[in-house]
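Tokens in:
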């Protein structure tokens, strides 16, 4: 059936329709048509390069399978995980290949299936490696469709059945490619690459079916072939093969874990650490495999203990997070550099926020149930206590992350600056980090369910004292930079006060300073800074008198007002001595008082009603006289 795109008519390819049979015609939008047009332009640009990779050699037919599929994937959507775009590219390339080779599957009215066979490759008329490429593109199209369905299956589980169907079809095309490469006209390298490619597709099918042993055998076969190929060819080609081996390794570890190898989970964590600070498909794949592993382990976890209280954990997301908490903390401790550590901190905080959100949703449901049953209990519920525990994990992770950043900045502060134009770290940057730490600790002291836990409150107060001391220390250093010696000295004394208070209180709280910075080192550093500050202040005061001697300071105060102070004033013996101020300033003097008769308001005057003339009632006559003035 023809498909209309922006008012034009394009005939569809019969083979393409047969591949995409799903009961509905494909629907194209304007954006999709523009994207397809841009892809076609890009395909036109890379055709010469692909032709060089597909040329027939003198020894026989050769095809660089891995190089072709990797270049095609990177240039047509898979760099951004867009499997639908890559699938469209494979379909269009198949149509071009069929048209070029004259190998069409019928016409627009009738479908006639055609398959490439070993006998065809033996014939000189079909001695073209593009017939192998035709089968390879069919396998890639089915694989990309399966990966697209895998992304959509997260929200639509029924698509998993279609996903398995597409994966089986891609493996079937891979087996066809391997059989075709058994022809004596195909070179040895192409045969090995075809075997590795078929093993990879077969392993993916078994992996999705959770047949771990068969999947592991297929992946190991693929890995072995690529390792052998990497050792036999140049470094440029070896890099490509090694990258493929690295992509397969997490799947092998995951299969080994499901078979029963407990060390495989640790190997997955080490692979995530070796990935460094970069992201990409490899990092996402590792995170997905680790999450799947934890989800299986979480089925056995039912409760967690914190602050002497055991809380049941019924939410799956909370189980998975708490189960992986120890692994994440161990991975952070083993991080090779600060970038990796920062990335792991951000991952842990993101997982913690998602888990807290899931618990909050359950808390809303629990609150509604309590309102209906009119239950009023002063004790904190298990779900609320679990929420407080997760908030504690989040806030303490923020504290440790900012402390790690502060250590990094502090090390850079001590390094000499080579480039004066480049802005280096300053004490103000560290002050901001310690402000965030103190804010997080203040929120810890208000957690619900821990108000009566006096030991916890004392521990939080002790931690706040430690970080207050460090914050005060860097404030003092910022004052030293602007030569405010007295302020800096007072702040150093405040640091010593905080540090000694921490040491005195830490004796009653065991293991409270285990995860905190060393206060004794801070005391030693403050004492050294105090001595250097006092020396700098003395040198600064010795330089201070030199400035007034170089410039004349004019004092306009008259002599009569500074009789008690002596200093040599040469103007007193001159023609205009400043003896008194003239004209003198105005001085306030008392003015003439104003008198107010306040008693008048309180005097009661005698009545004068008897002396007032009573006006008689004149009626109408009196009214008329009054008008004309006769009665006045």
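Residues out:
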């Amino acid at each position: 059936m023809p498909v209309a795109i922006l008012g034009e008519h394009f005939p569809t390819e019969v083979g393409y329709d047969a591949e995409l049979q799903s009961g509905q015609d494909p629907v194209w939008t304007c954006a999709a048509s523009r994207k397809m047009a841009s892809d076609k332009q890009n395909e036109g640009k890379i055709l010469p390069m692909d032709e060089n990779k597909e040329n027939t050699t003198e020894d026989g037919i050769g095809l660089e399978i891995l190089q072709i599929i990797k270049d095609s994937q990177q240039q047509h959507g898979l760099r951004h995980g867009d499997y639908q775009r890559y699938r469209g590219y494979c379909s269009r390339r198949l149509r071009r290949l069929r048209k070029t080779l004259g190998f069409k599957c019928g016409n627009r009215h009738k479908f006639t299936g055609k398959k490439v066979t070993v006998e065809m490759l033996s014939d000189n008329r079909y001695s073209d490696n593009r017939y192998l490429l035709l089968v390879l593109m069919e396998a890639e199209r089915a694989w990309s469709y399966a990966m697209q369905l895998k992304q959509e299956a997260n929200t639509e589980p029924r698509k998993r059945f279609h996903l398995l169907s597409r994966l089986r079809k891609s493996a079937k095309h891979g087996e066809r490619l391997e059989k075709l490469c058994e022809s004596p006209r195909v070179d040895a390298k192409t045969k090995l690459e075809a075997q590795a490619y078929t093993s990879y597709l077969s392993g993916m099918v078994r992996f999705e079916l959770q047949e771990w042993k068969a999947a592991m055998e297929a992946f190991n076969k693929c890995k072995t072939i690529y390792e052998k190929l990497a050792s036999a060819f140049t470094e440029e080609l070896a890099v490509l093969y090694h990258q493929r081996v690295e992509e397969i390794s997490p799947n092998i570890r995951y299969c080994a874990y499901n078979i029963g190898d407990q060390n495989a989970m640790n190997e997955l964590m080490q692979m995530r650490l070796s990935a460094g600070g970069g992201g990409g498909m490899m990092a996402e794949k590792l995170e997905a495999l680790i999450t799947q592993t934890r989800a299986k382990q979480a089925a056995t976890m039912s409760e967690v203990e914190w602050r002497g209280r055991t809380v049941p954990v019924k939410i799956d997301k909370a189980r998975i997070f708490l189960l992986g908490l120890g692994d994440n903390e161990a991975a952070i401790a083993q991080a090779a550099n600060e970038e990796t550590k920062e990335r792991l901190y951000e991952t842990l905080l993101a997982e913690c926020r998602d888990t807290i959100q899931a618990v909050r949703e359950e808390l809303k449901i629990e609150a509604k149930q309590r309102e209906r049953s009119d239950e009023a209990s002063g004790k904190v519920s298990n779900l609320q206590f679990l929420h407080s525990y997760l908030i504690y994990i989040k806030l303490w992770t923020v504290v440790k992350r900012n402390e790690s950043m502060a250590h990094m900045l502090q090390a850079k502060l001590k390094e000499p600056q080579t480039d004066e134009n480049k802005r280096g770290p300053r004490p103000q940057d560290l002050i901001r980090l310690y402000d965030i730490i103190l804010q997080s600790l203040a929120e810890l002291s208000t957690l619900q369910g821990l108000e009566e836990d006096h030991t916890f409150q004392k521990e939080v107060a002790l931690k706040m004292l430690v970080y207050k001391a460090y914050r005060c220390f860097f404030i003092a250093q910022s004052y030293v930079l602007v030569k405010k010696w007295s302020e800096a000295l007072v702040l150093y004394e405040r640091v010593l006060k905080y540090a000694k208070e921490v040491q005195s209180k830490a004796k009653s709280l065991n293991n409270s300073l285990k995860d905190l910075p060393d206060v004794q080192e801070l005391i030693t550093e403050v004492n050294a800074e105090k001595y250097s500050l006092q020396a700098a202040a003395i040198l600064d005061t010795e330089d201070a008198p030199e400035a007034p001697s170089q410039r004349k300071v004019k004092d306009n105060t008259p002599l009569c007002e500074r009789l008690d102070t002596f200093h040599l004033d040469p103007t007193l013996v001159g023609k205009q001595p400043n003896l008194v101020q003239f004209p003198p300033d105005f001085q306030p003097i008392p003015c003439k008082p104003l008198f107010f008769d306040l008693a008048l308001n309180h005097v009661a005057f005698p009545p004068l009603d008897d002396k007032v003339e009573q006006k008689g009632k004149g009626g109408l006559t009196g009214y008329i006289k009054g008008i004309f003035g006769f009665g006045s």
